[in-house]
Amino acid sequence: MPGSSSPPFSAESYFATQPPPPGLEQDIAGVKEFVKRQTEEGRKIVLVTSGGTTVPLELNVVRFLDNFSAGTRGATSAEYFLKAGYAVIFMHRQFSLQPFSRHYSHSTNPFLDFLEIDRGPTSQEICVTPSKREDLLQVLALYKAVQAAGTLHTLTFVTVNDYLWLLRAVSQELSTMKRKAMYYLAAAVSDFFLPRQKMSEHKIQSGKGSLHIEMDQVPKILKPMVEDWTGKDGYIVSFKLETDQSLLIPKAQAALRRYGHQVVIGNDLNRRKFEVVFISWKSPKATISEVDSNLNPESRENSFEESWLRIDITDSNQEIEENIIAELVKRHTVWVGEPESAAAP
Ligand code: 9Z3
């Protein structure tokens, strides 16, 4: 079995040894139905992943490792994709932010603060605080329109294992869309996990001094995702999160070189709300083998294009996701082979 003294998990050995989450089959039946309807109605589909994954330390889980992410990037991006005419499969960490309701998050903007009691002589009514009406009406109108159009399909995960199984199954379903499918991987995914076979059944007991846990590396699933699950046709965008700004570009380039997908969006933890960098291939036709056959490391680095996107942090009405999605919609339109004028929402 993989572990400290055994080889790391490949995607194949991971799925052969780690159990699928309960409910996977039902989730996928829902996705199949959604993909079928959206295809019939001629929409492109984007899979948006959002929120952090957990790594439980016990089978009867009391403690777990978590990855930072409130789900803001994913939920906000999903709204802009919907606005651009995409159908969205929103795969998110349970209880993380969701499109539309994110505007009224319980901690930053509790919805009860938007309501007032109108006391009449015989009865009481609820009404929305007048100063909040316009904003609420706008969000509500978009939310209802999306519900009526049936263009948003939501799936939830909690653990990194749920995430990996769902991602593989949803990608395989979406691969029938060929180039019309986009994959926008904004979830914060753990690099480490504890294989089921090494987990303690019950709560780990204290009293024996410090706790030593050795975790295995989560297999690099982007490679099979690019090459097998999506049939090499999907437009795949991954995010690279760093806290050391100087690592952002080299790590994003390394990811692109390693997996051969279309775009890596680099973001620094503390600057992510107002600055991101797009790393992509200079020539969209460049393939991994073309680049790999170029043995000169310097010209290898020349294979990438770097483009920064920034917004004014002092303007609270701007959301960087609006610009990110506008740029991706343009690039995806080219990828699909449609005229660029088709990118306008
Ligand atoms: C991101 O980098 C997201 O933009 C954030 C969004 C998690 C920073 P919030 O939800 O934060 O708005 O609070 N996501 C990808 C993070 C990640 O796990 N990337 C892996 C890596 O950096 C590669 S897939 O190694």
TrEMBL record:
Instruction: State one Pfam family annotation.
Output: DFP
Which parts of the sequence are annotated with region: Disordered?
1-23
- Where does the record place the DNA/pantothenate metabolism flavoprotein C-terminal domain? 44-99, 156-272
Q: For this entry, list what GO says about its biological process.
A: coenzyme A biosynthetic process
Q: Where are the transmembrane segments?
A: none
Q: Which UniProt keywords apply?
A: Ligase
Q: Which residues form the signal peptide?
A: none
Specify the superkingdom: Eukaryota
One term of GO molecular function: ligase activity
The entry's family comment says:
Belongs to the PPC synthetase family.
Q: What is this protein called?
A: Phosphopantothenate-cysteine ligase
What organism does the UniProt record list as the source?
Rhodocollybia butyracea
